[in-house]
Amino acid sequence: MPMSEYYGAVARSSTTSDVFNAVAEARRREILDTLIAGEKAVGTIVNDLSMSQPQVSKHLRVLSEVGLVRCKAEGRRRLYRLEPEHLRPLHDWLAKYEQAWNDRLDRMDDYLKELQQQGEPQ
Predict the structure, then answer these.
(1) Are 83 and 70 in contact (CB under 8 A)?
(2) 42 with 57: CB under 8 angstroms?
């Protein structure tokens, strides 16, 4: 098999070009979590998460590229804030599964009620 065919059959590594891939990385989720409280400078994020400045900057760049955070310059400082509306695709996708979970919990609740009724003296 020629190498070009081999590489065509192998799954490509994920990119960070969309919200799903961007939030797949735990450290990026931690950065989003720290920005829930409001706008923060890179140095504050570094201190909050005990990460190196280059790591934080790399992750912030990815989050910026997919629109999850926005940066504004204030002198030499860069302030980042969360843009939660860009989480909508993730929210919409999860909503289907939330309904499935709720349906299963409702069925379990019905089953438990049925078991309780069977155990009651008549």
Answers:
(1) yes
(2) yes
* pTM of the model as a whole: 0.70
> Across residues 16-25, what is the average pLDDT?
87
- Residue bearing the bigger pLDDT, 7 or 36: 36
* Whole-angstrom distance, CA of residue 84 vs CA of residue 106: 30
Residues 23, 29: contact at Cβ < 8 Å?
yes
Each residue's pLDDT tens digit, 49-63: 999 999 999 999 999
Q: Where are the domains of the chain?
A: 3-119
Domain 3-119 has CATH 1.10.10.10: yes
| Most distant pair of Cα atoms in the chain: their distance | 78
